[in-house]
Amino acid sequence: QVHLEESGGGLVQAGGSLNLSCVVSGLTFRETAMDWFRQAPGKQREFVATISRTGDNTYYSDPVEGRFTISRDNSKNTVYLQMISLQPDDTAVYYCQPMGSSYWGQGTQVTVSS
């Protein structure tokens, strides 16, 4: 059974930073590309970033390009999302997901105050 455990969210002021983590179990992590998504209040869930199986390739949505960094540690079955220069529009619940799957964790809340 696939399990996704996101953590690291919190309340920060605009311009601040947070580092999110997602521990994955129940699948062969090193063989799985991983995505981060987010869902703001009243909005649809949106793609944030993706990382290839080895971590060599990454891709970001336009709103976060240059401010967020996705990375992974295959020895720890963990994918990370480093976020800097946070803005109120980044307020959302953040989720990780094995690429192309239908698995979701409980997410971690990020709130950015102005």
Describe this structure in words.
- The chain has 114 residues and is an all-beta fold.
- The protein is built from no helices and ten strands.
- It has strands at residues 3-7, 10-13, 18-25, 34-39, 46-51, 58-60, 68-73, 78-83, 92-98, 108-113.
- A six-stranded mixed β-sheet has the order 2-10-9-4-5-6, with no helix packed on it. Strands 1-3-8-7 form a four-stranded antiparallel β-sheet, with no helix packed on it.
- A hairpin with a 6-residue loop joins strand 4 and strand 5 (46-51).
- The chain is globular and about 40 Å long.
- The N and C termini lie far apart (40 Å).
- The model has no long low-confidence stretch (mean pLDDT 97).
What's the topology here?
Layout: E1 3-7, E2 10-13, E3 18-25, E4 34-39, E5 46-51, E6 58-60, E7 68-73, E8 78-83, E9 92-98, E10 108-113
Parallel strand pairs: 2-10
Antiparallel strand pairs: 1-3, 3-8, 4-5, 4-9, 5-6, 7-8, 9-10
> What's the average pLDDT?
97
How many strands? Answer: 10
> Helical amount among residues, as a percent range?
under 10%
* Large-scale geometry: globular
Low-confidence runs of at least 5 consecutive residues: none
The value of Rg in angstroms is 13 Å
Structural class: mainly beta
N-C termini distance: 40 Å
Major β-sheet strand ordering: 2-10-9-4-5-6
How many DSSP H or I helices?
Answer: 0
Order of helices and strands: EEEEEEEEEE
Task: Summarize the biggest pleated sheet.
Answer: 6 strands, mixed
